[in-house]
Design goal:
Main location: membrane
Distance between the termini: 11 Å
Helix content: over 70%
Radius of gyration: 21 Å
Organism: Streptomyces tibetensis
Protein name: MFS transporter
Order of helices and strands: HHHHHHHHHHHHHHHHHHHH
Subcellular location: Cell membrane
Keywords: Cell membrane, Membrane, Transmembrane, Transmembrane helix, Transport
Length: 453
Amino acid sequence: MSVPAMPEGSAAAPPGQPRKAATAAWIGSALEYYDFFIYGSAAALIFPEVFFDESDPATATLLSLATFGVAYAARPVGALVLGHFGDKLGRKKIMVFTLMLMGLSTFLIGCLPTRDQVGGLAPVLLVLCRVLQGISAAGEQASANSMTLEHAPPGRRGFFTSFTLSGTQGGQLLATLVFLPVAALPEDQLLSWGWRLPFWLSVGVAVVGWVIRRRLDETPAFAQQTAEEGVVKLPLVILLREHWADVLRVIAGALIASVSTIFTVWALAYATSDAVGMSRTAMLWVGALANVVALAAIPLWATLSDRIGRRPVFLIGAAGSAVTMFLYLWAVSTGSYPLTFLTGIICFGVVYSAANGVWPAFYGEMFTTRIRLSGVAIGTQIGFAAAGFAVTFAARIAGPAGDDWSAVALFTAALCVPPVIAALSARETHRVPTESLGERAGLGAAQPQKVTA
């Protein structure tokens, strides 16, 4: 494959490209994560009755939430593969591929037979489709993040890369809004055909995303690096040799995603269980409103990080989430709708958005262009894998009745500690020029492995 060469010494994006890249990242991530998050809502509300044994509701819910975590287990594998090809072939091709794979796997979930129709084969097919979703998601954020970071003008990398995550929140909002009328269907219609509709809509998602992303230009930083140094033959080798400590920091930092999975999946299942008895529709609205607030908060936090640095903003989000998640789960336990709405918006919409909005720049700036996509993809997806299964562990920690919310809150707070440590040990990079990112004494002169002509 040929990559357009950039003039020597030039890594500036053409006029309008930073905004175009950010818009494509936002829309593409929103569409991609619409697919990913409708599974979370279905796993909490519907799949226990459709794909698992209804005679034991607690076990059915546990198994359903475990299938949610399966995608996170597949993500490190997807990160290894897609990160490798993203650093060899470019960011654009991976962005298009991940979107098409997500659309196909999500559509297939909507076509699956239920347990009543094919017995134990139904959950097996569900897991296989979920694995494909996980592989797709593994490359999505890292490729979109690398695309926006490398197109961004100096001093605004935090703002432009935040569009990837605000797009993710937009996809979560879209998924919630689509599920609102579906969840309001009569029980027999919901469990027979209604739950399939959000998954079938992924066909339109894939088409729209393909049209948007195929028009993107490759980043000037990647094009220049390729023209001057050649394609990196084994990005993983360079990554582990020169940036292993940064990979560990990203893994630890990515555990902050546990806040999102506990909020969007376990808390939803807990609130609508017999232990609390809140309505499905009301809890979906909590998520919807929190995501609306997050859409505004994420770019604001990211802009602040362009001024004062990545570390302090990330620390606000990580440490603050440990406290506010405790308040949110307590509010859910009371069954009070006003308290649940208020604390949910504060926890997920405002505080968590500080870490969520800044990590695309924070993590991406730890690595050089030649291994950036691999570094971000592998580091985040290993951390996200643990965060995905946090839901399953939470279901166990909550006890046989599934109502020990305080234990789940403490568990979530403990998962916020590694991100705090990672941020405290990281370098501040918000003022480092893009072409110098990831370089350290003794490493700047290291020669990449090249592909011969």
